[in-house]
Automatic annotation (TrEMBL):
InterPro entries: E3_UB_ligase_RBR (IPR031127), IBR_dom (IPR002867), TRIAD_supradom (IPR044066). It comes from Acorus calamus (Sweet flag). Residues 1-75 form the RING-type domain. Keywords: Metal-binding, Repeat, Transferase, Ubl conjugation pathway, Zinc, Zinc-finger. It comes from the Eukaryota. Its cofactor is Zn(2+). This is RBR-type E3 ubiquitin transferase. SUPFAM superfamilies: RING/U-box (SSF57850). PROSITE patterns: TRIAD (PS51873). GO terms for molecular function: ubiquitin protein ligase activity; zinc ion binding. GO terms for biological process: protein ubiquitination. PANTHER family: RBR FAMILY RING FINGER AND IBR DOMAIN-CONTAINING. Its EC number is 2.3.2.31.
Length: 75
């Protein structure tokens, strides 16, 4: 994690356990919902993610979901 990424975290996300979780999430390619910030995992299929908060987004780039994201280059 770069210094810039660390400083972008909220104060409540800077504890050692939080940083371990962030590293694990990066290694496993988990993404955070841009609305509620919960981590989500894509195990198979298309990049369409429907979060438990109801927000739909592209797993590859994090943008709000649209049909054009089926071929997202970030997947």
């Amino acid at each position: 994690m770069s210094c810039e990424e660390f400083h972008a975290l909220g104060a409540h996300e800077r504890e050692p356990d939080d940083l371990v979780l962030m590293r694990l999430a990066e290694a496993q390619r988990w993404r955070r919902c841009p609305v509620c910030m919960v981590f989500v995992e894509k195990t198979e299929g298309c990049p369409h993610i429907s979060c438990r908060c109801g927000h739909e987004f592209c797993h590859g780039c994090g943008s709000a979901w649209s049909q054009s994201h089926y071929n997202c280059q970030n997947n």
